[in-house]
Hints:
Strand order of the largest sheet of chain B: 7-8-9-1-10-21-11
Structural class of chain A: mainly alpha
Number of strands of chain A: 0
Structural class of chain B: alpha+beta
CATH superfamily of the largest domain in chain B: Dipeptide-binding Protein, Domain 3
Distance between the termini of chain B: 34 Å
Number of helices of chain B: 14
CATH topology of the largest domain in chain B: Dipeptide-binding Protein, domain 3
Radius of gyration of chain B: 25 Å
Oligomer: heterodimer
Largest interface: A-B, 60 and 60 residues
CATH topology of the largest domain in chain A: MetI-like fold
Helix content of chain A: over 70%
CATH architecture of the largest domain in chain A: Orthogonal Bundle
Number of helices of chain A: 12
Radius of gyration of chain A: 24 Å
Strand content of chain A: under 5%
Shape of chain A: globular
Shape of chain B: globular
Largest sheet of chain A: none
Order of helices and strands of chain A: HHHHHHHHHHHH
Number of strands of chain B: 23
Largest sheet of chain B: 7 strands, mixed
CATH class of the largest domain in chain A: Mainly Alpha
Distance between the termini of chain A: 7 Å
Number of domains of chain B: 3
Amino acid sequence: MTNFLFRRLLEMIPLLVGITLIVFIVLSSIPGGPLTAYRSNPNVRAEDLARLSQQMGLDQPVVVRYGRWLLRFVQGDWGYSVITQQAVLEMLGQRFLNTLYLMVSALIVTVILAIPLGVYSAVKQYSGFDYIATGLAFMAYSIPGFWLGLLFILFFAVQLRWLPAGGMYTLGTDFSIIDRLRFLILPTLTLALPSIGFYTRYLRAGVLEVKNKDFVRTAWSKGLGENMVLFRHVLRNALIPFITVLAIHVPQVFTGAIVVETIFGWPGMGRLYWQSALNFDYPVLMGIMTISAGLVMLSNLLADLSYGVIDPRIRYD
Amino acid sequence: MKLATRLVILVFTISAALAFASGPQSGGTSTIALWQEPENLNPYLAIQTVSRILRKQTLEGLFDVTPAGEYIPVLAAEIPTPQNGGVSADGKTVTIKLKEGVTWQDGDPFTSADVKFTFDVVMNDANPVSSRAGYDLIESLETPDDYTVVITFSEIYAPYLTLFSVDKAVLPAHYFDGNSDVSRSPFNRLPEGTGPWMITAWESGNFISFERNPNYREADKPLLDSLIFKFVPSREVATAQLRTGEVDGMWNLIESQIPELENVPGVNLMITDSTNLEFLGLNLTNPIFSDVRVREAIGLAIDKSVLVDRLLYGRASVAVSPITLGWAKDETIAAGAFDVERANALLDEAGWTERNREGIRMKDGQLLQFDIMTPTGDRLRALAEQVIQAQLREVGANMVIANVPANVMFAVDGPLKRGEYDIAMDTWGPDLDPGAWLQLLFYSDSIPTLENPNAGWNFIRINSPEVDAAVDQGRSTLDLQVRKEAYSNAARAIVDTKAYIPLYTRFLVDAFTDRLGGYESNPWDEFAWDSESWFVTH
Lengths: 317, 538
């Protein structure tokens, strides 16, 4: 187990270097660059541009710039934004926590609702409940997030005035859990609904497949109770592919948050990413890309590890 | 223009009536939505408009500009002119008297040492300063006493009142202990100034909050206790929050949002003239456009009022000159008005007399056909292109729409810089002092080349001795009358090239709810320039 973990973590290093190198080269070859905004300012003259380019290190070849970035990165220095002049780590810190807060809420809501809905639909296959759940799941999965979010704002914020239209908490007031939750509801639902639809369907299919396996029939014939068969044997086996898909999905929630964060004015990483991309802010983009890449690898590793918890037959050698 | 004036008066009347009814009270908090977030708040590092809006709440300059376009002293005691001895006879030495008794928000006195320090910051190579234009002409900056600054220029710098002023500011020397490397300073996010407000917090992606500065020199200002600028992702989100009352005001709407908000009870619009000028630039290296008659015909064939009335809901002014506002504006300059007959006659005269089966003019077997380019994704411009396309079709010209993303269009090695385009559509207008803008867009040295793509933005490739002479004259004197005449000549010469077709100038539109009062529009300053006079009614 320790060996496995160590090997996997070690493998991540060259992978991460490779990813960052490719990302850096791609970012550098996009026409424009951080000086784009300066160029359209009549007071920024050719001599100013030349000076800025040198001050930002943009006059160096890509390989040199990447080398410098990597060297500082391994020492824990993520560099400074070329646009805001702020330390990248400082910029990402709070934003990352805000996105994590939204993402975890959405994930919890998804899992809490999708698992019972999916399992119950499968157990009561072709029942009225199953048809309704299936219909709603398809609807939820098909509605685009940006549209759903706007609809929520229009209905719950502008028309009914029950919930705030955007932001993370009421500005100028003290911390309050109720206030935080009020701001959390709409973006969480917007983020969670499509995935609830998807996972309900996914789990239903998984449970149906396992339900008719030989070992389940054996369990029934041993005279085990319904709960025992369902949770011990069926669900455990059905959860393995579920977790794999969920692990791939975690980073997607992270990127999918861009749309939701934009609609609800959520001060998260998604908007920072978008803004930095528009500004060609390479150091910040590199920071965000590295975190995303790290997240993908980590969640895959976590998925691999959780198989062992769910299914004792899986061994790590 | 008339409509704008009327609307502005209407807004004034309403806000004045409101002020009268309830009286400007002190106290309270107001929240304003901004749909952009600034990069930082250091006036010498940042270039976004939204940064100017926010830093001007706390940082002040030596001079500023009134709604009428006149310079007024802020931290300076008076405007230095040749008449009051502030400007030397040769125009190269400017003596600035500072206001006495002004303090920074922490109570330290404001002195000439702060101006000297600010100059050091601009010239320090560690700071990625956006522009040193004007500052690099300063030969020496002396401070004979605490309240006098003497600046000697190596050559005449006509916009000398913009140095450390208007969109720039004076920085506090004591904050930095005199260390002029400010590139990584926390000051860039949380500046401390002499202005009406003190910044209390900046939470990225969320808000910037201000509290009234107890040391501000005007005792009863600001009226509000605190002011919060909330960052929202888009204008649409800002409008939604304005309607729910979550914010009291929002910055910068677009024309197409006006009908939606106009009839919402409790929402008032503030409409301000601007110099944001939408224009067509005809590439002079294109053989078709080398004939001035063809260029003139294109200008005459476009009915600009259709664009203004149909696409901008009448909320724009038809533009006839590159300088549309301010002291340098010349009412007598006018690009030719819409005239299809004359356009047809000019094209006939230029030899484009044959027509193909679709009615497109031809000359020596070549079609009268060219591309138009504007950044993709701008709906208004895309519609404007289609209108212009249809109008040019009426005189037998075939304009093909070929838009590209903004970062491609404006890239250093992009089509504008390389001169590989036919017609470009863009928005760009002069500042109150149009000198720098005229030079960057129309001066012969500003024609970008492959060797020097950063030379400038004269992508139309105007090479006119008249324009060059006028721009040179405008920057070689401090006499405003002479400068006004020079810029009139420049504007006239630019219009005469027929390669620069001004279309319309847009208005700046901001919105407030009934809760907030006391605001006034200023085309030469930023949104919230007068926030110290804002008040809330309930």
